[in-house]
């Protein structure tokens, strides 16, 4: 069987720094949107199946709980001097640009009131469509605000990943030197898999916390993932090849 010969005229196109940056940004936005859509779908399903008695109060309670975490436990941050105010402003700006600038709030206020007895036009028809789904629309808006608050919390928590990774890097390099001078064995298999696992752990942290259908203190999500991230950094550094 004849072997396939690569065409020498065909050039391999490599992405530049700007192209990689744009691709990475697009993927981040994609994951964030998927997390938001998943959160909304789970909230709607919960209103039907798991917490029908609470209704839209479930998402409203979640929003108040998330803000209370900031007020009580996140009084200082490297990113900003007032984390609670930063998160509230972030959520308010998200609400403003997504629902007020797009006139979505005005549309709801226009279509919500019951039409007059002999009212003509499209509003009575839209009111009939909107009335059964009104609580789901309100829940969607509140879940979006919860999403914005959690996004702000994750932004404020990112320095912990940097701190953990620096400690893990130092520990890993020390272990590498001990292996180098002690004649220890190398494992490129462990190195490459640990290296590949670092970035997905950061992404998984964001996706998991943003998509939670209930309120959970961010420390219970961020710290375990930050520890796993530091472990991958330590393993990557310790299994790096002994001689360059």
Index terms:
244 residues, mainly alpha
- Overall mean pLDDT score? 80
Termini separation: 40 Å
CA radius of gyration: 25 Å
Described by the principal axes of the CA atoms, the overall outline is elongated
Helix content: over 70%
Count of DSSP strands: 0
Strand content: under 5%
Low-confidence stretches: none
* Structural classification: mainly alpha
Order of helices and strands: HHHHHHH
Q: How would you sum up the major sheet?
A: none
Count of separate DSSP helical elements: 7
Structure characterization notes:
The model has no long low-confidence stretch (mean pLDDT 80). The protein is mainly α and 244 residues long. It is built from 7 helices and no strands. The chain starts with 16 loop residues before the first helix and ends in a 6-residue tail after the last helix.
Give the topology, please.
Elements: H1 17-49, H2 57-73, H3 83-100, H4 104-111, H5 123-182, H6 188-210, H7 219-238
Helix pairs in contact: 1-5, 1-6, 2-5, 3-5, 5-6, 5-7, 6-7
Quick summary:
The protein is mainly α and 244 residues long. The chain has helices at 17-49, 57-73, 83-100, 104-111, 123-182, 188-210, 219-238.
């Amino acid at each position: 069987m004849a072997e396939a010969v690569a065409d020498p005229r065909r050039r391999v196109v490599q992405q530049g720094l700007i192209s990689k940056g744009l691709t990475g940004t697009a993927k981040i936005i994609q994951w964030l949107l998927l997390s938001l859509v998943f959160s909304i779908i789970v909230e709607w399903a919960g209103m039907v199946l798991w917490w029908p008695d609470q209704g839209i109060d479930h998402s409203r309670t979640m929003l108040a709980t998330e803000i209370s975490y900031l007020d009580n436990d996140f009084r200082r941050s490297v990113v900003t001097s007032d984390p609670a105010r930063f998160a509230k402003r972030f959520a308010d700006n998200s609400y403003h640009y997504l629902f007020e600038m797009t006139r979505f709030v005005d549309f709801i206020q226009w279509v919500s009131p019951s039409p007059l007895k002999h009212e003509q036009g499209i509003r009575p028809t839209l009111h009939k469509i909107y009335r059964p789904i009104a609580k789901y629309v309100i829940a969607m808006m509140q879940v979006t605000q919860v999403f914005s608050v959690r996004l702000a919390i994750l932004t404020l928590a990112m320095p912990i990943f940097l701190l953990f990774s620096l400690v893990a890097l130092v520990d890993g390099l020390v272990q590498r030197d001990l292996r180098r001078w002690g004649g220890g064995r190398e494992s490129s298999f462990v190195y490459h898999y640990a290296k590949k696992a670092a970035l997905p752990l950061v992404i998984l942290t964001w996706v998991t916390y943003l998509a939670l259908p209930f309120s959970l203190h961010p420390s219970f999500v961020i710290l375990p993932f930050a520890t796993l991230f530091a472990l991958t950094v330590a393993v990557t550094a310790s299994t790096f090849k002994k001689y360059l």
